[in-house]
Amino acid sequence: MTNAKTEVATPAGVPGPPASRPLRRDAERNRQLILDTAKTVFAHRGLEASLDEVAHEAGLGVGTVYRRFPNRDALIDALFADMLTSIERIVAESMSLPRAWDGLVHFMTAMLESQGRDKALRDLMLSRQKYLEECELDKEEVVRETVEPALYEMIDRAKIEGDLRPDVVATDVGVLLISAVGVVDFTAPADPEVWRRHLAVMLDGLRARAAGDTFSLAPEPLDDEQLEVCMTGWKYGTRDTPRRRS
């Protein structure tokens, strides 16, 4: 009697079942494990953490990590894509709130909350801004076609609803948010939550008040092109910012 487990010969010219499928599933599991571990390692150590450290924490061989991500930049790029997905979620939550001011507050607060608990994200925000010009188009579109229009809409609506001072423009909010990330990074070693105090000061300065109750804003705000020049020329604005290689 033929054993049920005996393999049946494959007719000539007919491909057999792909033996590599289990390997592909294992590879995807390893890739996700590496990403999850890298988030934890980088959250504590920042982008200076090496692939060897990630491999050790993941319980994988160094060779396995290097097969999935040939260098640290490749791993950081994957984490950057995850960060953009998180930003998309924050934007959607902010836009769903009834009042634009509440959406703007949620956007700024949620963005800084993610930076406060994750040093790697702060490093990405502070040192890889120019990456948006070098990455794939679909990643750049998250900012160009999702974040910017939403921010402009919330600002316009908040002015119409009387909550945001009328002389504030989108680039003002962008500069304040970048400044706030610097506050998070500066204060985190002493108190990872004290940035909330300084954000409150920023938000208080953005609120609409009766004429004569605010300081005038001068000189003229940056326009989009000027802000781009600032981001590109900033010492933290290039992905070539020196850092220890793995």
Account of the 3D structure:
The protein is an all-alpha fold and 246 residues long. It has 2 domains: 23-70, Arc Repressor Mutant, subunit A (Orthogonal Bundle); 82-233, Tetracycline Repressor, domain 2. The chain contains 11 helices and no strands. It is elongated, with a radius of gyration of 24 Å. It starts with 20 loop residues before the first helix and ends in a 13-residue tail after the last helix. The model is unreliable at 1-8, 128-133 and 237-246 (pLDDT under 50).
Topology diagram in text:
Blueprint: H1 21-45, H2 51-58, H3 62-68, H4 72-95, H5 100-116, H6 119-127, H7 131-134, H8 137-160, H9 170-187, H10 195-206, H11 224-233
Helix pairs in contact: 1-2, 2-3, 4-5, 4-8, 5-8, 5-9, 5-10, 6-9, 9-10
Q: Which features does this protein show?
A:
246 residues, mainly alpha, Arc Repressor Mutant, subunit A, Tetracycline Repressor, domain 2, 2 domains, 11 helices, 64% helix, disordered N terminus, disordered C terminus
Gist?
The protein has 246 residues and is mostly helical.
Mean pLDDT: 79
| Main structural class | mainly alpha
What is the CA-based Rg, rounded?
A: 24 Å
CATH class of the largest domain: Mainly Alpha
Question: Strand share of the residues?
Answer: under 5%
CATH architecture call of the largest domain? Orthogonal Bundle
How many beta strands in the DSSP annotation? 0
Q: Structurally, how many domains make up the residues?
A: 2
Query: Helix amount, in percent?
Result: 55-70%
Counted by DSSP, the helix tally is 11
Q: Give the helices and strands as they follow along the chain.
A: HHHHHHHHHHH
